[in-house]
Design a protein that fits this description.
Blueprint (H helix, E strand, L loop, with lengths): L2 H13 L2 H7 L4 H15 L4 E4 L2 E4 L1 H31 L1 E7 L1 H6 L1 H11 L3 E7 L2 H9 L5 E4 L8 E9 L1 E5 L4 H4 L7 H5 L2 E4 L5 H12 L6 E4 L3 H9 L5 E4 L4 H6 L3 E4 L8 E8 L6 H17 L1
Parallel strand pairs: 3-4, 3-5, 8-9
Antiparallel strand pairs: 1-2, 5-12, 6-12, 7-10, 7-11
Helix pairs in contact: 1-2, 1-3, 1-4, 2-3, 6-13
Length: 300
C-alpha cells in the first residue's frame, strides 16, 4: 500500500467517475484502474462498484474511507509541518550593503545567491559605507560590502570587484558630442558634477583624485541615491564619475554613455566583502558567499 493508491481512492470517491478522477490526477485511466485494483487486493475486498448511475462505494469501501481519509490528512499535515521545520532551520545571513550597490547589483546577484545556497535565507540592509565596519563589530550584520579596507584584527576583508571609474553623461550632453573615446579629468571638472555626498567612501576617493591633480569643481550637485543620480544624468544635467557596473542597464539601452578618464586614469573603484573573524560558526558559509560574489563579478 502506498500514498498514490490512497490518493487515487479518495479522488475516485470524490468524483464518482474513473475518467474524471484520472484526468484530475493527470493519469492514464489504465494506471488509475491498476492502482485501485492493487489497493483492493492489499485490503482484501472490493472498494467500488459500477451501476447505471456511475461509480459508488461498496460497503467494504465505505468502511475503508474514513481510515484512508485520515491517513491522507495526516500525511498532508506531516508534510506541511516538516516543510515549515526545514524553513525554520535555514541559516539567516544579515548583509549590509551601500545604497548604490543594492540598487545596481543586487537585482542580478540575489537570484544567484538563492539558487546557489537554498539552505540559507538572506536579510539585506542599506547602510552607508562609513557605518558598515561599526555594524560588523556590533554584530548587527554578518557580512558587509564596503569600498575600503581598515586595519582591524577582528575583521577580514576580501576584494570581490574592481571597476574603472568613467565619466558618465547623457549621449546628447555637449561634452559627449565633443569626443568618442575618452575625456580628461580637467574636462570633467569644468562641467556641473553630480556626485555622492561627502560622507561616502566613493566621494572621498573622487575628491582625493581631484586634489592629487590640483583640480576643483566648477559646480556640484550632491545626491546620496544612485537612481536619482542616474535620473539627473539622463535628463542631460551634468556629468558624474561612476563605475560602469552602476549603470549597466542604461549603457545597454543607450540612455547614458561613459568615457574612460585619460591620459591618466583614476584609481579603480574597489569593492570588498568584510566580516567578523570572531563569529567562527558562520565563517565557512560566509566565505562560500564571498566566493560566489567574486565569481559573479568576474563573469559580468
Amino acid at each position: 500500500m502506498n500514498l498514490d493508491q490512497l490518493l487515487t481512492f479518495i479522488e475516485v470517491e470524490k468524483t464518482r467517475n474513473f475518467s474524471r478522477a484520472a484526468e484530475n490526477l493527470f493519469l492514464p485511466q489504465p494506471t488509475l484502474s491498476n492502482r485501485i485494483r492493487s489497493l483492493e487486493q492489499e485490503l482484501g475486498g472490493q472498494l467500488f462498484e459500477r451501476d447505471s448511475r456511475g461509480v459508488r462505494l461498496t460497503e467494504f469501501g465505505k468502511m475503508a474511507l474514513p481510515y484512508v481519509a485520515s491517513i491522507v490528512s495526516q500525511w498532508a499535515e506531516l508534510n506541511h509541518n516538516l516543510r515549515n521545520y526545514r524553513e525554520n532551520l535555514k541559516k539567516t545571513f544579515r548583509i549590509g550593503i551601500p545604497f548604490a550597490f543594492f540598487t545596481s547589483v543586487m537585482p542580478r546577484l540575489l537570484p544567484r545567491l538563492i539558487e546557489r545556497f537554498p539552505y540559507m535565507s538572506f536579510s539585506f540592509t542599506n547602510i552607508l559605507t562609513s557605518n558598515i565596519i561599526d555594524e560588523i563589530q556590533n554584530h548587527a550584520i554578518d557580512l558587509g560590502i564596503t569600498a575600503y579596507e581598515v586595519v582591524n584584527p577582528q575583521i577580514a576583508f576580501h576584494k570581490i570587484d574592481e571597476q574603472e571609474v568613467s565619466a558618465v553623461m547623457a549621449p546628447f550632453y555637449p561634452l559627449a558630442r565633443q569626443t568618442d573615446k575618452s575625456v580628461s579629468l580637467a574636462q570633467v571638472a569644468a562641467e556641473p558634477l553630480v556626485l555622492f555626498g561627502k560622507n561616502t567612501a566613493y566621494r572621498i576617493q573622487i575628491d582625493n583624485e581631484f586634489r592629487k591633480r590640483q583640480l576643483r569643481y566648477v559646480e556640484l550637485i550632491e545626491i546620496n541615491e544612485i537612481n536619482t543620480i542616474i535620473g539627473i544624468l539622463k535628463g542631460g544635467i551634468g556629468v558624474s564619475l561612476l563605475p560602469n557596473r552602476f549603470i549597466e542597464m542604461e549603457l545597454q539601452t543607450g540612455e547614458l554613455v561613459s568615457f574612460p578618464i585619460r591620459p591618466e586614469p583614476m584609481k579603480p573603484f574597489q569593492t570588498f566583502a568584510a566580516y567578523s573573524t570572531v563569529d567562527s560558526a558562520k565563517i565557512p558559509d560566509i566565505k562560500s558567499i564571498i566566493d560566489e560574489m567574486t565569481s559573479f563579478f568576474s563573469e559580468t
